[in-house]
Specification:
CATH superfamily: Phage tail protein-like
Shape: elongated
Order of helices and strands: HEEEHEEEE
Strand content: 35-45%
Radius of gyration: 15 Å
CATH architecture: 2-Layer Sandwich
CATH class: Alpha Beta
């Protein structure tokens, strides 16, 4: 089983945000140029095969990534696009002993969610992480 922390650790390896600016579950201090990994609230059916998960070679984790960048709309959009491109390019990456087979990104581009209370631009990327069951 893959956990949010595993996905956070993978995102931290991409070099888009510093490791200390990648969060899982909650952004505690909302630093600029941060990425948060959250469970996707409306996740699709997992498609468990007959006989249960022991008969499945892969699992799916639905996640939402929040790109909380800076006060520049252009820089923020570019950071979100770079993250989305890196997620789409992911193939057979191993992190914390788990192999991510690929990542399906739900939309063609990051979803702008305006600015936070401090004027920091934010984008959301919704995706399904397909991972190898061990």
């Amino acid at each position: 089983m893959i956990h949010l922390r595993d996905i956070r650790d993978y995102v931290a390896t991409l070099g888009i945000a510093n490791d200390g600016n990648c969060y899982c579950g909650k952004m505690t201090d909302k630093k600029e140029k941060s990425i948060g990994v959250y469970p996707l609230k409306n996740s699709p059916n997992s498609g468990i095969p007959l006989g249960g998960t022991k008969n499945s070679s892969y699992g799916v984790k639905a996640v939402s990534l929040l790109v909380h960048w800076n006060r520049s709309p252009t820089e923020s959009e570019k950071a979100a696009e770079a993250l989305q491109e890196a997620l789409i390019s992911c193939r057979d990456e191993t992190i914390n002993g788990q192999t991510i087979k690929f990542i399906f990104v739900a939309y063609d581009e990051p979803i702008p969610v305006d600015t936070d209370e401090n004027g920091i631009y934010e984008y959301v990327i919704e995706c399904l992480v397909y991972y190898e069951r061990s």
